[in-house]
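Limitations

Structures in this collection are predictions, not experimental determinations, and the ligand pose is part of the prediction. Treat each record accordingly. The example that follows, with magnesium ion as the small molecule, is included so readers can see exactly what is and is not provided: the inputs are given verbatim, and the output is the predicted complex.
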Amino acid sequence: MIWIEEIAKYEGKEVEIHGWLYNRRSSGKIHFLTIRDGTGIIQGIVLKDEISPDTFELVDRISQESSIIARGKVKKDDRAPGGYELEIKGILLVHSAEPYPISKKSHGTDFLLSNRHLWIRSRRQYAILRIRGEVTFAIQEFFNSKGFTRLDAPIFTPSACEGTTTLFEVPYFDNKAYLSQSGQLYAEAGCMALGKVYTFGPTFRAEKSKTRRHLTEFWQIEPEIAYANLDDIMKLAENFTTYIIQKVLNKRKEELDILERDTKPLELIKPPFPRITYQEAINLLDKQNKVPKISWGNDFGAPQETYISQQFKLPVFIHRYPAECKAFYMKRDPKDPRLALCVDMIASEEYGEIIGGSRREDELAVLEQRLKEFNIPKESNEWYLDLRRYGSVPHSGFGLGLERLLAWICKSSHIREMIPFPRTIDRISP
Ligand code: 4AD
Ligand code: MG
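Predicted complex:
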C-alpha cells in the first residue's frame, strides 16, 4: 500500500491505493474514478477492454464515499488533478457506502456544520485541516529552534484571566471551576522557572455574540519571556508570523491552490511590520468617514480594525492602549500612566486582531491594587502574586489565536471552518 501524496515516486509501477471513492464519471466503455486517501486525490481510469466484465460492472455500482482498494499502474498526466493517473487493473470494494448526504450541489452552512464529521472529507475542508496541521507543526518548530520550553497550562482554573463576562463555570466536586480563557498566568510562572516558555492549547470564552471571528473554544499559543519588554515581543511576533506563513507557502502550496488562495499578499509578509500607537490609530480613524470613529478610552471593534488594516500592506502593531480598556495584569507606561504597555497585532487583508500581548505588572503592591480595581478576588490569585514576591523581574508575552491566523492564511470568511469541530454559542455537536 502507498499513499497518494507519494505517488510521484511510483511512476510506471503498479501500486495499491487504499481509500474512498470521491467522485465518478462514466462514458460507456470507460469509468473515471476520483479516489482520495486523505493525503491527496488521484484519477483512476477503468477501461472495459482491460478488465474483467465483473469488475467493470462492479465499478459502475460503487457509490460515493464507498471504501475501496484500487490496484493499478501509475502514469504521469499533467491534465489530471495531482498530475498522475492510475490505470486500474483491479478494485476491491471494502464497504459500500449508503447514499451520501453531501453531494456536489451546494449545501447550507448549517447543514454542513451538522454533518461536520463527514464534511471534513470534502476537498476544501481537507486542505484547511492540512494547513492547520502544518501551522501547528511550524509553531512548535519555531519555538523549539529558539530555545523555548513548551509549558502546558491547566484547563480547569480557579479564576478569570481575561474578564468575568466570558467565563465558563463548571461544577468541580463540591466547588466550582472555570474553563481557562488563557494560559498566560501559568506561562508567567513558567518563564520564571524556564526563562522562555510557550503554552499551546485550547482556551474557552463564553462569547455570547455570533461573529465571524469568535469561537467559544479556540486554540491559543502564548509565549512568555523573562526580562523581555514590549519591543522584544513585537519583534518575536513579527518573526513568528513570518516563519509560519513562509512554511505554509513552501509546504502547502497544493492546499492553498485548492482554496484558490491568491498567495501574493502572503508572500509580501516580512519583518518589520509597521508599529503605530493607539493615539495614531485614533488619528487615522478621525480622518475618515467610512467607519464610526472611536472616542479615546474605547477599544476598536471589527470595522475599525478593518479600516486600519486597509491602510497597510503588512500586519500592523497597535501599541499602548488606554489601560481602562485592557486587562488587569498589564503594566502601565511610565511615560504616561493612562496607557498600558500592550500591543495588538492586526492581520492584513481585513482579518482583524490575531495577537494580543503586553508587558506584565511586576510590582506586588501595584498588582494588588489592580486586583482590587478589577474586583478580582485576591485569595485565588495568591500564587500569581507570589511571582512578584520571589525574584520578580520585568517580563512580557503575547497570545496568538490559531483559528484567526488560519482564517487569514486560508482567506476564509468564517472561523468555523478553521477547527475540526467548531464550538459556537448555538453549536456543540457533532
Ligand atoms: O487578546 P486576548 O484576549 O489575549 C489574551 O488572552 C492574553 N492572555 C494573551 C497573552 O498575552 N498571553 O486573546 C489573544 C488572541 C486574540 O488576539 C485572538 O487571536 C484570539 O486569541 N481570540 C479568539 N479567537 C477565536 N475566538 C475567540 N472567541 C477569541 N478570543 C480571542
Ligand atoms: Mg485582545
